[in-house]
Amino acid sequence: MGRILAERLREALGQTVVVENRAGAAGSIGMANVANADPDGYSIVLGTLGTHAITPVLIPKSGVDLAKDLVPCGMVGALPNVLVVNKSSDFKSLADLVERARKRPDEVSCGTFGPGSSPHVVTEMFQKSAGFKALQVPFTGSGTAITALISGQLDFLFDSITTSVGHIKGDAVRAFAVSSAKRSAVLADVPTMKELGFPDVDYSLWLCVYAPLRTPPEILAKLQEGIQRISADKGYVAQLEERGAERFAVPSGELQSFVSAETQRWRGFLQQADIKPAQ
């Protein structure tokens, strides 16, 4: 999505936009890099529900206070998860999986990408709602996890639709449900968790563009205006949906309060799920 957004920003702002990946510390390194950059509008960062609402809880000493050091420019989309199983799995439905997991939880395994990752959070939501606790196997990312699922080493996996849709369309895995409030345009035949009786499992990884806090108001206004035009553009929305993402909008005046509310919401959930901050 970053590169799609970069191309759209180039057109909207009339400026060259270069994507620079800064991985590490669950996104904190990239956030800190922009937070400490000159507030001239030339350094912005794509933050997510994870970097802004979950990572600050799990990594409280990351070296950057996102609420104080960055200012939101606009939401640009959301990434739902999809629950997938091996194509030859004995589980023919979500109900089958839940029934087995409740009766013999030690025999049901699932993959995650580490504490606070999307698969970890939505898996915890699912387990809490369904009343079971599966054996969680950590992986470094989607590629290794989906490979393990396809080879029969895992029973189920929550993964981003954007990275799983090819495997689903190619019949390497079967999709039981999506974690978003509504069905995905790219997986229209796959029901939501709510439709299957789990209304509490409602999770999509929102994405928001941020700039350094001291960015001048006129520059910030230009960025916000450009992002709002992009997020409402039908062509851009179609590009998102083709990849399993979806449009997600929050009025610019409500962005800061929205992120603050999300942080509190997920802090509470992480505490309930006994997911502790890094020591």
UniProtKB/TrEMBL annotation:
SUPFAM superfamilies: Periplasmic binding protein-like II
Family: Belongs to the UPF0065 (bug) family.
Superkingdom as given in the UniProt entry: Bacteria
Protein name per its UniProtKB record: ABC transporter substrate-binding protein
Entry-linked PANTHER family: BLR1237 PROTEIN, TRICARBOXYLATE-BINDING PROTEIN
